Amino acid sequence: MFSARQSFPLFVGLRYTRSRQRTRFISVISLISVLGIALGMTVLITVLSVFNGFQREVRTRMLNAVAHVQISGLGESLRDWRSVAGAALKHPRVKAAAPYVSAQGLLTSGGNVRGAFLRGIEPAQEATVSEIGSHMKAGSLDTLKSGEYNVALGAPLARALGVTIGERIVLVAPQGQVTPAGVLPRLRQFTVTGIFEIGHYEIDAGLAVIHIEDAQRLYRMDGQVSGVRLRLDDLLQARSVVRELLGILSPEVSVSDWSQFNSTYFRAVELEKRMMSLLLFFIIAIAAFNMVSSLFMVVKEKQADIAILRTMGASPGEIMRIFMVQGTLIGTVGVACGIVFGILGALHVDSIVGFIERLFRVKFMPQDVYQIADLPSQLQAGDVITTAVVAFVLAVVATIYPSWRAARVNPAEALRYE
To answer: How many Å apart are CA 191 and CA 386, to the nearest integer?
Structure first.
């Protein structure tokens, strides 16, 4: 329990806060300080949530087609992939393994030509390491059968080629074949039996999936594969699993995790998140230090009261705490409002942005640039707590100097003209 002496600064500070200022301008500046802190926190929490959601969405959609961990040979193929897969499956975090053939080629249909990343898979095993099969818009991966030369295309790639289910395309392999007429490219006709869309534009616009044995024949791999793809029980443990597998497997293999496949995306988003956080913290700091001017005016207005309190026995420290209580309360109200509106903004940012897009007929998230069509949001308690703590500390720091000046008011000078 506080003694009367200890509660005196708190009581007077709260009374000053509740009392109406003689100068309305002071109240306006105090209100602006509260609104500035609240607005800065609202924007910061919302923006951080959008960055978190963007990282989550890109990672989730990318991992629909990209394995958690990928083992490949140091050359163009992985020798004895079955023993490699068996050794990897002994790791407690590895839940599934599937071989693949990776290659590049040109796809043509009519007058349309597109470069594509070709992946040869075993449909039954592919379902254990990726989710392409669950994102089919038409057809099925089960139609990819050895010897039938069927292909599944990403939806944007199919649109660019102008083909649908049942139509044929020609694959031009980069490896040529030597003939009496010279080196000619290898051509093979494929039938489109599946169209998928996982939601990651770069993958959808460039991936074509065929049966692994068709890929081996086309690229003359003699039954070998490019590597083995692994599925883990926890994708966030991929880096530690890679380190452990490197110690188990032969030095002739290369092991990489999902974060290395598109590391540029995640580094760019993380850098943008840090820089945006820094800029928005400056907004909060400016709003917090607006309190300095309002408290200086309050001190000027209350000089007679300060002098009377001093003559009644109040110490300079108690006078300083009175005005710190007043400034801290203003900061607390701003922080509380910022938390409430920040959480509401983060939870409804998609609706807010959608309304603005419809109102002004603009598109903030073009899919071909940001890889996703909608604006995602993921509210994290750590972001809210960090933002609130920093804003509150800045508000408290802003009260120190005006309160110190109040404690230095000379009672005789303050009462001379009263």
So the answer is: 55
